[in-house]
Design brief:
The chain is an alpha+beta fold. About 45% of the residues lie in helices and about 15% in strands. The strands form four sheets. A four-stranded antiparallel sheet has the order 6-7-3-8.
Amino acid sequence: MKLLQLLLREVPFEKQELLTIIATASRRYKVYQIPKKDGKSVRTIAQPAPEVKLLQRILHEKLIGKWPIHKAATAYISEQSIADHVRRHVNSKYLLKLDFKNFFPSITAADIRQHARRHSKLGEDDLDIFVNIVAWRNNLDHSFCLSIGAPSSPAISNSMMFEFDESISAFCKKKEVTYSRYADDLAFSTTHRDTLKEVEAEVHRLTLSIQSPKLTINEKKTVNVSKKYNRSLVGLTITPDQKVSLGRERKRDIRAKLYLYGRGYLNGEDVAHLRGLLAYAWSIEPTFILSLAEKQGNELFAKLELPFRNLKD
């Protein structure tokens, strides 16, 4: 079935209306910027209009979701969490963290087209439609690429990293190194001293050799640590007793916000943020949430409309 006919069966648009949306989809984005953690640079978010989001979700269900994803990938995977990415490394002594620079924007429309041609039985006309729906035209630098904010971008990026993940996983297996990737964050761990130097060199070699997508390592974010020091991944901490923790600072922040909420000092937006923080904390370290419930009382969590409670009550 042609892609246009497939979409027409799924959307509430007439043919001509759909063709217009497809032709202009790559420009139907709300663009804004948020500051990065370094406090100096910004991250550009481009969210597609509702009608484009609908088309992207249909393509994910019908096509993108069937593309291969390597088991080393841990982000955007059903029944996987950010904690699963970290748990793979808790038993190792040495940890290497690498990061891709401008990950989503580095994946161009040409890269997407090439990957879709390989993994979907789409003709050239259908590939034109597909790429125009899932890629964003950035008017600032005139790039045509994946956007941070589109619902189809995570799955596309995960699949497009399959060959990289496959190659680096095979290398790591020979070296007795554990590898996992959470979006643009790469983690390697081992019990063997100096092995991670070889891994880092191999990642650089492989990154340079792969032409699509053309990615670069962010040297400023490269970290190589041993068990003697604080080991953290994607904002989570690996404790000395080989567990995954939220870390002291985040726990302190949650306690402070919960204290302020209990005394009525938080507004609606802050309350929503606290609710999200607590849900996130529960997915990572439920024992911490249970300790809060024991100290603060179940009533506070009930007021927040969260299911956490101290079973001792």
